[in-house]
Specification:
By secondary structure, this protein is an alpha/beta fold. The chain is built from 16 helices and ten strands. Helix content is 50%, strand content 16%. The structure holds S-adenosylmethionine (SAM).
Length: 354
């Protein structure tokens, strides 16, 4: 993390002697740009092949050595690179999280992050009016090349997060014995479906999503050789009626990062369709930023509140556990439980259909 304070700096910050807003504004924004630039240029993947001198790296990346050196020095200060003598190499952090061939590569999410940051330009007007500022990217004209590029970055980013961090979720829940059919509502990139299918060898997943999402999911299924076990149904989960789309009763349904996109009444209506698609005894697994589930962690709280504010610009928000519990119990779900995850940010809620 770029803001690594020495013990003295930590004490001074706690004593309110250091100008913390200066660091929050300039350094946090600056490091975000530096990281995206480095991922876009391919700095980490190139150094992943071997340590390099500045001039070798500059010629490989087709950069000006002096311009590149400024970027590399910042990446060293932020803990992403190490420099010894004349050579640069990736830190452990960069090796684990930012290399193309790492199973926990989240560089695609880093590259997608400026699209999220762009939403914050609407903040002053949002705060004054509390109105939705723009349509969800999914509702834009998907024939436009710009929207296609944006959605491709979005789904690639989400897929990378799911595949890098999703194992914790798979191990945290226990599917009903003998579960065979999983429905992944708004599951697009299919990263979570793929992890469940890999863990439960008899499971078959059906992903419901809009067409661009499905194309991303088909790529994931092909990459992981799971084409036989993941099917896709193009559907608008808000407008379409599920029974006409689905051929079976499901043992499990995932509702992952959907709630924050939708107003409360729409969530209730979509969840009603999801619950109807489950067999009695079937399990609903809900994953999202849940506003009261931050467990005293500042990092969690920041992530959850950021999401709540950001998605307000596109008409969504984040909800507390009692609200989600009320929605689910009204729909006949029992054993509604919140589960804490080690990775800060999202929380898991499970429930069982009577
Ligand atoms: C934030 S993403 C979450 C994706 C995935 N479930 C995850 O947790 O990473 C929201 C997903 O909902 C899908 N989505 C949004 N509105 C939808 C709609 N009306 N019908 C179907 N899918 C929709 C998007 O395509 C996208 O895949």
């Amino acid at each position: 993390m770029p803001l690594r304070l020495t013990p003295l700096e930590y004490i001074l910050a706690r004593l309110n002697v250091l100008p913390v807003p200066l660091f929050d504004e300039l350094l946090a924004t600056g490091i975000a740009h530096v990281l995206v630039t480095a991922c876009d240029l391919g700095v980490f993947d190139t150094l992943g092949r071997r340590e390099m001198t500045l001039s070798d790296l500059a010629s490989e990346l087709q950069c000006h050595p002096q311009g590149l050196e400024l970027l590399l020095r910042l990446l060293v200060s932020a803990g992403y690179l190490r420099q010894r003598r004349e050579r640069y190499r990736n830190s452990h952090m960069a090796r684990r999280w930012l290399l193309h061939d790492s199973p926990t590569n989240i560089a695609p999410y880093v590259i997608h992050s400026p699209d999220i940051a762009a939403l914050w330009e609407h903040l002053p007007r949002l705060v004054r009016t509390n109105q939705q500022m723009m349509r969800m990217p999914y509702e834009e004209d998907t024939s436009s090349p710009e929207t296609q590029r944006l959605l491709a970055r979005h789904y690639a980013g989400l897929a990378s997060l799911a595949l890098a961090l999703g194992d914790e979720i798979i191990h945290r829940v226990r599917l009903p014995a003998g579960a065979q059919y999983l429905l992944d509502v708004g599951g697009s990139h299919a990263g979570f479906s793929a992890l469940f299918c890999r863990h439960y060898s008899h499971l078959h997943a059906t992903v419901l999503d809009l067409q661009p999402g499905i194309e991303a999911g088909q790529r994931t299924a092909a990459q992981l050789h799971l084409e036989e076990r993941i099917s896709f149904i193009g559907s608008d989960i808000v407008r379409d009626d599920f029974p006409t789309l689905l051929a079976t009763d499901y043992d499990v349904a995932l509702y992952f990062h959907i709630a924050h996109l939708l107003p409360a009444d729409v969530n209730q209506a979509v969840l009603a369709k999801v619950v109807r698609a489950l067999r009695p005894g079937g399990q609903l697994i809900f994953l999202d930023q849940v506003t009261d589930q931050t467990h005293g962690s500042h990092l969690s709280s920041l992530m959850v509140q950021f999401m709540a504010l950001t998605v307000r610009t596109i008409g969504g928000t984040c909800y507390p556990f009692p609200t989600v519990k009320k929605w689910l119990e009204k729909l006949g779900m029992t054993r509604v439980r919140a589960h804490r995850l080690l990775t800060p940010g999202a929380s898991l809620i499970t429930a069982v259909k009577r």
